[in-house]
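Sat 14:20. Reprocessing the chain from the morning session after the first attempt stalled halfway. Input below, unchanged.
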Amino acid sequence: NDLKAEGKYSTGYFDESAAEIVTFDPILRRIFVSNAFDNSIEVLDASDPENPEFLFSVQASDGVVNSVSVHNGIVALAVENNVSTEKGFVLFVDGIAGTVLNKLEVGVLPDMLTFTPDGTKLLVANEGEPNDDYTIDPRGSVSILDLGEGTFMDVVTATQSDVTHITFEAFDPLTDIFRSIGIRIFGRINDPLTGEFLRESKASEDLEPEYIAVSPDGKKAFATMQENNAIAVIDLETNTLVDLAPLGFKDHSIEGNGFDASDKDGGINIKPWPVMGMYMPDAIASFETLGETYVVSANEGDSRDYDGFSEEVRVDDLVLDPEAYPDAETLQAKKNLGRLKTTTTMGDYDDDGDVDQIFSYGARSFSIWDDEGNLVWDSGDAFERHLAEVLPDNFNSTNDENDSFDKRSDDKGAEPEAITIGEVDGRILAFIGLERVGGIFIYDVTYPYAPKYVSYLNNRDFTVIYESGTPNDGELQAIGDLGPEGIVFVPGDKSPSGEPSLMVANEVSGNTTIFTVRIPPMTDYKLQVLHSSDNESAFQNPNTLEPTILNYGTVLHGLKAVAAKEGIPSIYLTAGDHTLPGPFYEASKEVPELGARGLADIALFNAMGLTANGIGNHEFDGGINDFARMLSTANYPFIAVNLDFSQVEVDSGTPAIRRGVDGGSVQENAGKVVRSAYVEVGGEKIGLIGRAPADFFNVISDPDTTIPGVDFIGGRNPEDNQPVLSALEFVHEQVALLESKGINKIILLDHAQDFTADPLSASSLHGIDIVVAAGSTGFMAQPQPDGAFNMLRPEDVSSAAYPTERKDADGHTVLVVNSEQLYRYVGNLIVGFDPEGHINFIDDRSGPVATTSEAIEALGSYIGDFKLETPAEVAAIYRSLTRTELIRDLYEVIGETTAPLNGLRADVRSRETNLGRLAADSTLWFARNYVSENGLEIPVDIALKNGGGIRSNINGPAILQLQVEAALAFNNKLGILPVTADQLIASMENAVSRYPARDGRFPQIAGMFLEYDPEKEGVSDQISLSVPSRLKTLIVYRQDGTEDVVVENYTAQGDLNRVFWLATNNFLLTGGDGYAAFKAINDNPDTQVVIPDVGEQQILKDYIQDALGGMVTLPEPLLDNRIVNIHDIPVLTAYQIHALTLFGRVTDDAASEGDFDNDGVSNYAEFHFASGSDDSDSKPMVLAGATAEGLITLSHARVAGSDATWIYEATENLSSGTWDTLIQGEHFEMVVTEQDGIEIVELQSLNTGFDSLFMRVRVE
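Finished this time. Tokens:
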């Protein structure tokens, strides 16, 4: 069985409430049990869980002990006043010695109390029940005791001023409204002299807090009002009541909600009845799953039955409305509903004296509610159905006698009383104790919208019969557990046995039992790996203003729900570049709750439940102190196998960078840097190893200043900043460490970049099952979407299969996955493993999911029963950023553009774009103005920007400050320096050295023209070069108007010592992106280098407004390229020139390259056109023209004299994949005109016979 009774302690008292509430302290290994019989708590030593031993008891001589709770050795007792209508108190006790530490007054009848998870507050439910004559009805309340940091000294020194009382007087005027929405306000106060009815109770008197649960994050508390059928929500950050919600009613007439209503029907008769059940939970517990907080409730039910007022009657005592219950006589028979206990306070809707609706106490179930009190799920009649199956002879028995079959059917049935939550092997389990028949139900509530039954155990011997009505000592021991009242779950790492435990206090049998929880592991282990990388603080698309972080959080939330619904363990990983200095990164410091740059990113990842982050490079762009602050607030580890932080020193007041335990759990390594870690989910440990890029010190601005003390393990080569030792051996070290701990499923988070000098190819690896790749351009997907799964954004095309399968050095499968950047997708990998830890299954749903509204809608539809929305904490953090002055100011319009300005990563790192040119031109313009205005006789000839410094498009037509700051997120400072010809050659060779890899060093230039051959050897990180390699042509157009040829036909020209003045940025000045020549110049004290204190964002803004008059007119693609790859296909540019002329715009979806052998060169270019209305919006296209007569025309451009073959095709249906070739003379006539070496081809009199068609021109 999933529960095994290990040990028991018995008080020897029967039916005296001698064991009611139980709590456990893992530090002391002691159990504390409230004993109402002698007004005490009993302290048990649980070091040996098979033999718990009584140590001592603590008496409360001046009151009645109702509840007990413990935190870090501090025990709190809820003590009811001997005069039950007077205020009670909390007694604080030392859990070791049993001495009293403090005593604080709380409300009337403190019935339950609990510490917050961090022990800094104690919450008390003060039920405030009336006296038996109902002449006094005290106010119910919740008391919150502020305990400072929760230390012994804080508790000892706490005073009455540290107690906050939440009462309900403000609701008194709303009493009638409460009644109308289903909150039961029905007390009747009698005259103390005559005993006659005096008045109705006020809401503040009638509301009776019964039980409290605190959210796992300690921010909210939930208090049930059992008799009122309501729940209160309390904000613990402000100690205020924020909501009081009715719990509603359960319709027992629905199939699946039935129950056995009679103890006189001679058997088990579970069926729907025309009754509404009041949930009326007693115990509740709170848990978090899928990023949200939920509450589980044991729906016991309770009535008010006092001498002065009782609401209880049986259904056969009611007068039923003949229209509502035309079969009243049959229903009121004792074998049907007649014996069922009901209320006189509800059901007469029309006030005519008869009952229009029967209500019953409790729901005979457990329920799940969201954190606003909305019902998520209810177990229906599952409890009674199961009990009927497993206890057919003892169904609905009572708890104080055996041989009591069916005795409780008329009165709340089995009465779910106690409930708690525990996590076992990544599964969130609810344990529900049944007060009457006894036993514990276990349900898996990981997916709260469809919990799964796990097991039921009843540790009661129904064969023990005691004739006298009270068992003797032997019978009491033999009978087992009667009346479970309180239960507590203890995780395995805190349990004395080392295994998860459940401790149960049984009020009727007066004993406390310790159970071991053993949930069978999954037989076919599956794992969901959610992943992304390079998100770079891009919370909002600067062009569309789409809140990408909100959509990302929503998709992530939904994908977790998919796994939880199917019982698949899930982890969430990122592979680096968490953050990037920019608007939202900066805005974090303006949010009081955050207070420093970059902390919003970490708060968001915390809120989304990140498991671990593999370190990239942009996390360090804000400097080592920013990184240290971000790390300190992370609830997850930062992993890099190859980085050494041992020599790092941070500024005073900055949290130290803590180094974790290699191979330790993600929990113990949270907020630390570590080389490897593991996460345990679904009963299996998953190993995690991270690798920071080999180019780490080349892509961080001035690393010696920015991140002093950080190095590669083993050091780095001073010439190129590459690691001296390959990360491969470090990865294998950590694999061996993890495998020594029995971990055979390992994931590598590899931030390799587009180019790496230290490739960790699958074929070189041992023991790695999955590689989450990052830092690169392009992403993987399956070829066909399936609903939300593999649904791409319309403008995107994947570059490889998801996952890409490889073989490791031992021939085992390695899966390589990645995802597109900037919160645009969530990667979703679902795989299975064999017992040896090898992958044996890939779920068809694996692949990226776009963070778009369409994907969210499709994902929500797929899940079905789950409310898919942005997690509240994610939304709150984002909202706090958008309200900062810094972000609000960014929506200023600073100019316009006639064409979208292209800052796509793949483009600015591989070719010249109009945004790249604009940035370079602005740099040259500003530099020239600056030297002139400051009297510097420096002729600034040229400018160079690195493509990696351009981070985003500016789509236009309006240009916002937000877009400028997103595009030039680093806001690098201007640098002006002299370069000799050989230094310039070295620099420009470096600029194109890594193409076709989309490396950040690729240039965007002004004042220069260059041609290069990417098929020649790339040369990087050189200070000077006299012999070019890739450079075929390099021409400088000096400021004085002269043309200076530096390289011609791969040969350096002229005096290599001649000087050019170049404007660039401070990142490149410090050798970033391999520009070693610039660093050498900057480091030379004898060389004049000018570094104005102005950033590139301001420079671009000034250029647009002052030099261009606010209007940017650069086309895309550019008409006169300054950078030419001699192997580029000329027809692509020719087409785009024509498209720009013909249609006034060209976008990436107008033409797409077909590089099928991945050599960086197009095999052909394909241009799509559409005509007609049907399906014309199903794919981005450029619309063809039409004559005045309505005849379709199609025009395109081609290079004159090209030997390419042009093929014209058409289809009626794009999705069919079938294209028909069009024949000149049969389907169209052609007119060709030539201008400037470009042929303009126009197809006229098109006649295909299609009503609506798509056309394309293919070039082979």
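The chain has 24 helices and 74 strands.
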